[in-house]
Write a structure and sequence with these properties.
Blueprint (H helix, E strand, L loop, with lengths): L1 H8 L4 H18 L4 H10 L4 H25 L5 H22 L4 H21 L12 H21 L4 H12 L3 H25 L5 H24 L2 H25 L4 H7 L1
């Protein structure tokens, strides 16, 4: 718990947390993600360890996802059955991710986050979803959706992200969803797993709930604006913008990981 108290003293002002929330909310509505790709590095930057930043980010995703779902559902861009199947798997996966989060080394978590970003960038560049397609459910598809949810669910608990960065391209590429339906369905599916993962992190004493709620409320207010922007962009333009943003984030993530990698850290210090 000493690590958590020390990290808490390094947190920036409420204004900074609100700014992070507004930025993550816009991206949540725009890309159908929980906003963890903004929240985690921002919290690390202002003083939290990767472990506590991931846990706090997951708490912030709860109100963010609710706001985004309402915005997408208003236009009919949510597949409720597919979201339920995904959510069932994600709840199971989030418990696995939370268990791993409390046990894996900080350096491993940082490099795993970088690898995850590379995967998402490539997926955005190689595939363009249709704006008019919909998910065609069957029994085999339902089973696959639940299994996909387990895999995706590990990410919120382990990396502090909502899993939307994987769910959105997967729903379009594997299940035929339009880009908007994939985003709305992803936001709905991540809600229960975010709650389950946050509860597990709270029991382990690695979540800063107050800071997560400040960020989450600000994000919830900004998410509808991102949803409006998503409808105005073409699917290809939306994917390109997401890839560019993640590429910038990847550069910073790799640099941060290098600075704590044994051997590399010493060489950087001698320069």
């Amino acid at each position: 718990m000493e690590e958590q108290r020390g990290a808490g003293r390094g947190i920036g002002s409420v204004a900074a947390l609100i700014a992070v929330g507004l930025a993550s909310g816009l991206l949540s509505g725009l890309f159908g993600i929980g906003g963890g790709t903004v929240i985690v590095p921002a919290l690390v930057l202002v003083g939290l360890s990767q472990r506590h930043a991931a846990a706090t980010s997951l708490a912030a995703i709860i109100p963010t996802s609710v706001s985004g779902v309402v915005s997408y559902a208003t236009d009919g861009d949510v597949d409720w059955v597919a979201a339920l199947l995904l959510a069932c798997g994600m709840v199971v996966g989030s418990q696995i991710g939370s268990w791993l989060l409390a046990r894996l080394p900080e350096l491993f978590l940082r490099w795993m986050y970088a690898v995850f970003l590379v995967f998402v960038i490539v997926s955005q560049l190689v595939f363009t979803p249709s704006r008019d397609a919909a998910i065609r459910l069957s029994v085999p598809m339902g089973v696959l959706l639940a299994l996909l949810g387990v895999v995706i669910g590990v990410l919120p608990g382990l990396l502090g992200i909502g899993g939307g960065a994987v769910a959105v391209p997967a729903l379009s590429l594997l299940f035929g969803a339009s880009d908007l339906i994939a985003r709305g369905t992803s936001l709905l599916a991540m809600f229960p797993s975010a709650i389950a993962g946050t509860a597990a992190n709270w029991r382990r004493g690695i979540v800063h709930l107050k800071h997560g709620l400040i960020i989450g409320v600000a994000a919830a207010l900004a998410a509808p604006l991102g949803t409006m922007a998503a409808g105005a962009l073409t699917p290809r333009m939306g994917a390109n913008l997401f890839a560019v943003y993640l590429a910038v984030l990847l550069v910073r993530c790799v640099w941060t990981a290098l600075t704590i990698t044994p051997g590399v850290r010493e060489r950087l210090a001698r320069r």
